[in-house]
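Appendix B, Record 12. Input sequence as logged:
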Amino acid sequence: MGGASKLNLTKSMLEYEKGKKLTPGAVLGIRRPYNFVEGEYPIYFEEGKGCKIIDLDGNEYIDYLCAYGPILLGYREEKIDEAVIKQIRDKGFCFSLTQSVQNRLAEKLVEIIPCAEMVIFLKTGSAAATLAIRLARSYTGRTKVMRCGYHGWHYWCVEVKGGIPKKLYEDVYEFEYNNLESLEKLMEEHGEETAAIILTPVGHPLGNKIQTPKAGFLEGVKKLARKYGSVLIFDEIRTGFRVSLGGAQEYYNVTPDLALFGKAMANGYPIGAVVGKAEIMKEAEKNVFVSSTFFPNSLAFVAALKTIEMIEKEKVLEDIWEKGEKFLKDIKELTERYDVGAEVSGIPPMPYITFKRDPQKIYKKKREDFYAQLIRQRVFMQPYHHGYICYRHTEDDLDYTVNAIKESLEYLQEKY
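Logged structural output:
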């Protein structure tokens, strides 16, 4: 039983030891080593271009995590970076008042996103989710929230509750994706007090298979929101500008009241947005306070406009879907050929390989071995998070990756 050779990660590990003395855990949250395979994955990257990234030790990888989603086109896209550099040189980007480029981007979002009548820009998905909940509570005069999916690290929704008093999340209830009955039961009990129902239109629970909406699920959620007078919010931070230009709401033809966008909208530049019905959004005129020194910074607006322009002109999403469909088909065939418990889920822009759970929990070791073999072959995927196909992934990159997956599955079959 051979398998691929372990990578040289000496510099990355030395930097990690240094980092632990300077920052708690050296790196934060989902980027910590235990979210990958400890000792097998690099901890620091040095540079990236297209779909390739290079770590501190000079190892080059084909990247399928895409910075956890923002990289839709590729790293260091010249047209986008040049537009940003031009803004810096010619006009600047941080002022006491807002630059008018904000309106140009807002107009574009209103044009392409079905639910968008007005727009509020922020810098992160977590901030967008929290603002949407605040708008809904102000608009309805209610407190309770029904949630499904990951919505960031703020107090009302974060899974890790350290440092958060219970009273700050006690009015938030979770329902199960694709299980309309679980939401119906909650609404029967709390519907008259429910300000918002928030969910990810494509289900992506941590470490579990991606789920697409069953027939009638999203429609059923919307019907319940209407029945009880609650605000329906789609968290499109991951699906926005990937599933379609107008988001999953456009693709599945279900329009919410509010929606959250970010990540891929500016191809790596920090941006978040809440979009939605004007009557709800207008709560931010007087009743809901929204302010940040950096929310109006224009660099991400410029990057987003250029990103959207490229998506439209170069048929980026059509290209990603075509590549992703073939990729999913190829790796599904492999997981059927090699009976090691591997499962493929997702949609063409967002593929994921997980392992069937067993009572002995051998799946955990299989998952670790599988992803260790992939990273050794310089394919950068994450064991607990789905991947992404970006515009700069070539057919050769995808073919190489399919072969690496094949060899990793062969390794598991021989070992287990």
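The longest strand covers residues 194-199.
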